[in-house]
Amino acid sequence: MLSSFQGKLVRDGVDKKAVICIEGNIASGKTTCLEYFSKTSNIEVLTEPISKWRNVRGHNPLALMYQDPERWGITLQTYVQLTMLDRHMSAISAPVRMMERSIFSAKYIFVDNLFSSGKMPEVDYAVLSEWFDWITTNISIPVDLIVYLQTSPQTCHERLKQRCREEEKVIPLEYLESIHQRYEDWLIKKNSSPLPAPVLVIPADNDLQKMLQLYEENRDKILPANYL
Ligand code: TTP
Ligand code: MG
User: Of 23, 26, 86, 88, which is best to mutate to test ligand 1, by the most ligand atoms within 8 angstroms of its C-beta?
Assistant: First the structure.
């Protein structure tokens, strides 16, 4: 159910829940982090709707975007924005929600990067920005904590090659470097786009075993004790 508070649409009951967004470069380990915490009781985990981005009514906007960003960037990003909004607005079934990325990184990292690297026409950027501004002005999207998995672009490049998602085979190191730079400006230097929540940084260049250990060590900082 939706209600209205101070002119914004609000999902009922959301103020009594904690929302934690896991952020980081492509292949930084967000899904692994979420899977680890999904074993904790009282947590609802939402991984990214990437299967939708690869198949909307039989079309693959993710693959199209990588083939020709100037033509298909707006198509993918419009759909990413819709699916992220849908995630943020869905009813929360546990005291704590952890989710992969947010509507904020889709805009501040990916859309802004497409535009500033000259791969998105100005009119497409204007339309996407109008949508984003309308959404964030009129709909309440509460986030309580951002967990930033901080990696080097090289690590992500290695992991990408190992994981071998068909659409991502064309991603060069330079692309991961620009995404990395945008994340650092947003979440570390805090000099680019607005921050929707406080940031907890976890170094994420380590192997899986060490990452699981770090997640455990940071458990109390990530999960608000009063909600569990
Ligand atoms: P990620 O959101 O980084 O997800 P991931 O599963 O690769 O990360 P991790 O290993 O840390 O779990 O990216 C998924 C793909 O979608 C990737 O190719 C980048 C692309 N993408 C966009 O092009 N635009 C966007 O706005 C978003 C959010 C992703
Ligand atoms: Mg993932």
Answer: 26
Query: Structural domain tally of the chain?
Result: 1
Question: What residue numbers bound the domain in which 38 lies?
Answer: 2-227
Instruction: List the 43-46 sheet strands across, edge first.
Output: 43-46, 96-100, 18-24, 145-150, 199-203
Task: Take atom 21 of ligand 1 and give the residue whose Cα is closest.
Answer: 110
Q: Token pair for residue 86?
A: 């849908």
Read off the CATH number of the domain in which 93 is found: 3.40.50.300
Rounded to two decimals, the pTM is 0.94
- Ligand 2: distance of its center to the CA of 4 in Å? 33
Catalytic residues: 100
Give the pLDDT confidence of 50-90 residue by residue, as tens digits.
999 999 999 999 999 999 999 999 999 999 999 999 999 99
